[in-house]
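WP5 quarterly update. Target: Immunoglobulin domain-containing protein. Source organism: Exaiptasia diaphana. Length: 275 aa.
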Amino acid sequence: MTRGLHAGMYSCLVLFLLVKSSDAAVRFTKQPGSKLYVLKGHTAKFTWDYHVDNINIEFDSQSPRWYYHNDSYVIGYGDAFLNWKFIIDTSTCPARLLTPTIRVSVEGKATLVITNVTLADSGTYGCRLVLSSGLPISMPTSQAQLIVEVARFTNVPANKLYVVKGETAKFTWEYHVDNINTEFDSRSPRWYFHSLSSMIGYADAFDGRKFRIDRTCPARLRTPTVRVSVEDKATLVIKNVTMVDSGTYGCLLFLLSGYLHSMPTSEVELIVTGK
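Structure tokens (predicted):
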């Protein structure tokens, strides 16, 4: 009986210690989403927060550490000798964040802030809670991709557009751009069916951004009569829709610089119904 009682007490004690150890572990309590979209010229905030029981014992003297892409581009760290104040690592912090003015700082305990973001600021940023012991690979780390946009959609259609056969389909897209001539490609926006390999048309910068039908536009939209056009800045119009017009249509704000996957894109499924 005594042996069983002792075994039970021991099991409870082990369980209590495990739970207590788990609760006390250094960890992030708040992290940004995997992607952070910010308009050019605005402020990016990577909202990190963390829990640590005894920061003076558990943290390295330079922790947390914030970085760009990887540890070879450490932006800065919390300095234990300055009451964990954020210090910029001028030897590795990207120069664009320091000159001509310093644009990077930390709010609260771990929120990284970049003001007046530029296209060059796009990329992956991270925060690592560097501990006083252990392997770096096991230390709490969080990353988020910053995507800086110079243009954005101000209106997009619903995900699905239902139109009766023979009627007109209108994909009502609208966008904002500060300077279309310096930020847009000469063929932008671009409208497509399913993918850019079936581009319907584009706005031609050399003709006042007039809509031009591309050679890859599906033949059904061009013959025997042209049934596709653009109204206002970006609203795609298809007249006298047929059942074969059903499918996914998209609008891409094609920028002068940056990666295609980060450019503003909106897609809508057209569903043509019988009368």
